[in-house]
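Example record

The entry below shows one chain as it appears in the dataset: sequence first, then structure tokens.
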Amino acid sequence: MLCAIPVSAQHDISKVDPAPENSAISTPMPNVRERQIKKYEIPELAGATQALGPQLIDGRLPKPLVDLVITEGTLTQRISLFEGGLVVVDMTGGVTLRKKVLVPKDAMQGYLSAISAAKLRAVDALELASPERDRVAQVRVYDADGTFVERRFHPGHILPQTLGTQIMPLRDLLRAISEDRGVTSSVAGYEPQAGDELVADDHKTYRVVRVVKESNVVQLQCLDAPTTIYVAKKDLNLYFIGAKAHGD
């Protein structure tokens, strides 16, 4: 799988997010999408940049703008939009996936023009199929004064156009972020140093032994098995989820 979005940020291990337990790099991509991504960028992430470290605004957390949560059985997917262009995705179920990215200002304006508190308020809740206990979707849009409008519905039923046109862009963005291994990974752009520890896709821990400067190849020693691997520095984000959590 090729990275669709170039990453220019250079950072040390302190900016690499710790790998959550039972986490994954990305969701599996269908074969057709794999072939397409080799030729085209993921349009939803065009111009996006990494969200490294705390994304404070004037020393405070960014205000929430939109939340979409979809639960189907044991799988829960959530996408949240915040001021400043921050988008956060959380998935729990078979694996844990947590990602964040900064989308361009014009892209964020596009999402917020598609869905708003006023538009969501205009959706008649009686037109929505009632959710079940383990099959429920919830969309919430915050108004400027901090109040919010919310609608709950069954994720498996056809939505009225008034709601479908509002959440379809969010679903597309959720898919794009969950499949990406580039700009949404804090390992992309990471400058390895000897002694750094990374968690691989199979959840084994590897320690950086050295970086061969002539070839930009990284030598890593597995701490869970007698294995040494060599990975091109630019490809580390394709094999590693994040940093070894402190205290593990």
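Notes for this example: Residues 1-6, 32-40 have pLDDT under 50 and may be disordered. The two ends are 30 Å apart (CA to CA).
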